[in-house]
Structure formats: C-alpha cells, structure tokens
Write a structure and sequence with these properties.
The chain is about 45% helix and about 15% strand. By secondary structure, the chain is α/β, with parallel strands linked by helices. The chain has one domain: Rossmann fold, CATH 3.40.50. It has a seven-stranded mixed β-sheet, sandwiched between helices. Strand 6, helix 7 and strand 7 form a beta-alpha-beta unit. Helix 1 crosses helix 8. Pfam families: Hydrolase_4 (PF12146).
Length: about 240
C-alpha cells in the first residue's frame, strides 16, 4: 500500500485569504476539508506544513521543529499571502497552530481577524498531548513494514527522552501568548469541542473572557473540529465569521 505524503496546499480563489495552521502531530490534511469549503465560497486558503511534520518519522517533529521555527514559518506564510496581493488576510490555528495564530493577532498589524480550534491557551496540563503524540508515533511506526518490534521500541524510547523538553518549550510559548490575550483588538473566533480530551474545554471560556472581541463557539465534539462530527457546523460558523469581519 502506497501512503501519500501530506503536502501544504494553496487554493487561490479570491481576494481575501485564510491562513490555516495545523496541530502538533497533524498536517495540512486536517485543514483541507475546511479549506475546500472556503475555496468554494471564494476565499483563497493557504495551509503550510510546519517543520518536522508530514514525514514517516515522528522524531523529525521533535528534532527539526520548535516554537521559534514554527513562528518564523507563520510569519513567512503571512508574507506569502501579502505578496499574492490579498486585500484581507485571516489566520486560524488548530491546537499547536492556535498558539501561532493568536500570536499573529497579538503582534502583527497586517492580520484582519482570525481564530482557533482546540486551543491549548490557558491549559496548564500537557500530559494528554504527550500521550496522544506517543500513540500517534506508534501508529506511524506500526504501518512501516520494514521496522522490527525492537526498532519500534527503540524509536519510542527516543521519543520519550525528547518529548518532555519539546512540550516544555511549547508550553512556555503558550503561556507568553496567553499573557498577551488582552492585546487582541481584532475579531477572534474560538471553536472548542466540549468533549475534547487533549485540552481542557473550560479553558476556552477563560480565553474568551480575556479577549473582548472574541466569539466563543462550543461544539458537541472532540479535539480536531475541522474533520470530526462538528466540521459542517464549524465550516458554517467560520464562513459567517469571515463574511462579517
């Protein structure tokens, strides 16, 4: 079975553009359904690939990626859309991507509005994210037929030795962004699944209190709102948000 490698995508469809930033163990594939929906509604959509992601080696995320690198990529993606002469630029992020989407709204004047899905902001416990990453890594390795059980165990031990440090880096970035939430003056969409197991759903309410321009949307669903059972309602709500901002 040939496994297609995830790729960034750019749908050039209108003068307004939406930048979409994926999650810690995700890829632009998680944003494609929403991206196609917005493309059909005359929005251009760009979903870059964060460094270390989209490979058959989960260790790449821990060894090649960092909050500094991912933030630099976010800024480069925004500049790309500006270079495409887009009149409006919006930025949305899922989970890890939510940190950098929010930072862009705090720090960069060239963003018109944006928002988050399953945001880790105001979350103090990243243990569930660690477990989810380990589960993801085991799944990736298990479908690689050339790996022995011993090799898989060795790779998982390597991940265990590195992931705490990486999550600490991410959490520090999250805290810094959280501390500046009150600086956001532009429209801010918050999408949160009420049965999210990776982040505390109640944290979204704390973020909404900090950001006076926010719109909080709660969904009877889990973490990855862009592709789970809430995705149809999420698409409708995001489009309404864009049309009014």
């Amino acid at each position: 079975m040939k496994i297609l490698k995830p790729q960034p995508f750019y749908f050039d469809s209108g003068s307004s553009a939406v930048l979409m930033l994926h999650s810690f163990s995700g890829t632009p594939n998680d944003m494609r359904l929403l991206g196609r929906f917005l493309q059909r509604n005359n929005y251009s959509v760009y979903a870059p690939m964060f460094a270390g992601h989209g490979t058959s080696e989960p260790l790449d995320i821990l060894e090649q990626g960092s909050p500094e690198v991912w933030w630099q990529q976010t800024q480069e993606a925004i500049q790309f859309l500006k270079d495409q002469k887009k009149t409006k630029v919006y930025v949305f992020g899922l989970s890890l991507g939510a940190i950098f989407a929010t930072k862009a709204l705090e720090d960069l004047s060239r963003i018109d509005a944006g928002g988050v899905f399953g945001s880790p902001l105001h979350n103090n416990n990243f243990s569930q994210i660690k477990q989810a990453f380990l589960t993801y890594a085991k799944k990736v390795y298990s479908i690689q037929q050339d790996l022995t059980e011993f090799e898989i165990d060795s790779k998982i031990r390597m991940i265990n030795s590195k992931i705490d440090g990486k999550l600490t880096e991410i959490q520090k970035s999250s805290v810094m962004v959280t501390e500046n939430l009150a600086e956001i003056k532009r429209p801010y969409f918050i999408g949160q699944g009420t049965s999210d197991k990776l982040v505390d759903p109640d944290a979204a309410k704390a973020v909404a209190e900090d950001v006076k321009t926010s719109q909080l949307h709660l969904y009877d669903a889990g973490h990855v709102l862009t592709i789970n059972r809430a995705h149809d309602q999420v698409q409708s709500d995001v489009l309404n948000f864009l049309e009014n901002n």
